[in-house]
Amino acid sequence: MRALISVSDKTGIVDLAHALHALGVGLISTGGTAKLLAEQGLPVTEVAEVTGFPEMLDGRVKTLHPKVHGGLLARRDTPEHMAALQAHQIETIDLLIVNLYPFEATVAKPGCTLADAIENIDIGGPAMVRSAAKNWKDVGVVTDASQYAEVLAELKASKAQGQCKLSDKLRFALSVAAFNRISQYDGAISNYLSSVQFEAEKLSESYVPERAQFSGQFNEQYVKVQDLRYGENSHQQAAWYRDLAPASGSLATGVQLQGKELSYNNIADADAAWECVKSFEAPACVIVKHANPCGVAVGAHPLEAYSKAFQTDPTSAFGGIIAFNRPVDKAAAEAVSKQFVEVLMAPDFSAEALEVFKSKVNVRLMKIALPAAYAQVRNALETKRVGSGLLLQSADNHELALADLKVVTVKQPTPEELHDLLFAWKVAKFVKSNAIVFCKNGMTMGVGAGQMSRLDSARIASIKAAAAQLSLHNTVVASDAFFPFRDGLDVVVEAGATCVVQPGGSMRDQEVIDAANERGVAMVFTGVRHFRH
């Protein structure tokens, strides 16, 4: 058995080579890797000795040779292939260990030059990987250090039985992983190059190109987390995929501690709840139903936050998705366990909290570790499928600060109102448009979501508050977009609001401002809207 080793990332490669040598595997390698292995006392043959041709063009050409690709591609069960190898004195290569030039890491560095990016486009590596992966029945191809242990375990087990080979199952799995890696690599190159704003007059070795925010071709790869029982409805099929490198603190990094499998709708609603609760620095609780927050609150501790959030809309909270941005303790767990809940998420659960839910075997508990700056951990891009196409946009990660607010009325907001305005604005960002959110003392008092008319959203928010027996007297209101007419403002003021935050930008802004002054309420503009469709 012969193995060809050519790696850019040399993590674990010396140990692997020693183990292969101990199994009687012959080692072939390229330049830097061959030198490293030789320095470790391993008998290694350089590729140049195999091909009879030296590396050239600064290493751009070293493995692109029939004695390499013939050894990888020849089908061992095809007499014509084996005869051709014999005629041209080509030996088979049974194991290929390759990781590619670090293109993704290179272009991610600030100030990466076009020249550096181009030089980190691997040619020989992907060519060998494709050859070996195509001939998976005869050749094992290893493209990541995480595969080393399994490959060695199989080789050792088979060696003990007088062979030294990988199983068909593992070779096929390695082949699939190899083609996946090539797809990821080529996608990254395509994304980078098709985003470059090429300026020939600036071309030099130090040229750092301007790049368009959206590349000419958009390539994304995801890894399947699990198949789902069904999709949004029972007649639809579905699966859940995650990013290749999911951000810490994101839903995809969560661990399910107990409960039934997550459904399509569970995951969609859980993400809405988790993204919302992450936006608060104080202990917070968010309850989501059908992708909309139906209760949000902050408190001194998780129990207080939950109790306040639940008060907003107890009816809608039934069967909801609940998220905390603090570990759940026994007190909070006991309060939540009294209600029917589909999913409960938190950075952690105390041992006592887990004990509370032992008898609630269907409740899905999700532990999602949060980094220190978790409020800033967001997706950079958002996508939406349309017929035969894709909409792509930068994510709505705008954070409002007090300094951003512009008071446009005679009446000024009180410090307490300003605090609640910022809270209400954060919530409105996660409510489907048209969104109207009443808040007071760090809790939602009424939420109107997803209506075709902002006026109707305002009315629904008032109706929700009345149903929950909550008074909207002296509340603040957030509107995710401007009031096109004064009627929406009149509705929220009549319901009890004394202060309103909205983006502004309507041709009738002055009419709405005049109405606010007439009604004696404060109004501030943000200059930014938060449509969420």
Detailed description of the structure:
The chain is α/β, with parallel strands linked by helices. The chain folds into three domains: about 1-210, 3-Layer(aba) Sandwich (Rossmann fold); about 250-375, AICAR transformylase, duplication domain (Cytidine Deaminase, domain 2, 3-Layer(aba) Sandwich), CATH 3.40.140; about 400-525, AICAR transformylase, duplication domain (Cytidine Deaminase, domain 2). It contains 19 helices and 23 strands. β14, α15 (about 350-355) and β15 (about 365) form a beta-alpha-beta unit. The longest helix is centred in the middle third of the chain and has 26 residues, at about 170-195. The model has no long low-confidence stretch (mean pLDDT about 95).
CATH architecture of the largest domain: 3-Layer(aba) Sandwich
Strand order of the largest sheet: 10-15-14-13-11-12
Classification by helices and strands:
alpha/beta
Question: What's the structural domain tally?
Answer: 3
Report the top-level CATH class of the largest domain. Answer: Alpha Beta
**Fraction of residues in β-strands:** 15-25%
Mean pLDDT: 93
CATH topology of the largest domain: Rossmann fold
CATH H-level homologous superfamily name of the largest domain: Methylglyoxal synthase-like domain
Give the overall shape. Answer: elongated
Q: Would you identify the regions where 5 or more consecutive residues have pLDDT less than 50?
A: none
DSSP summary: helix tally: 19
Q: Provide the helix percentage.
A: 25-40%
Largest sheet: 6 strands, mixed
* CA(first)-CA(last) distance: 58 Å
**Rg from alpha-carbon coordinates:** 30 Å
Number of strands: 23
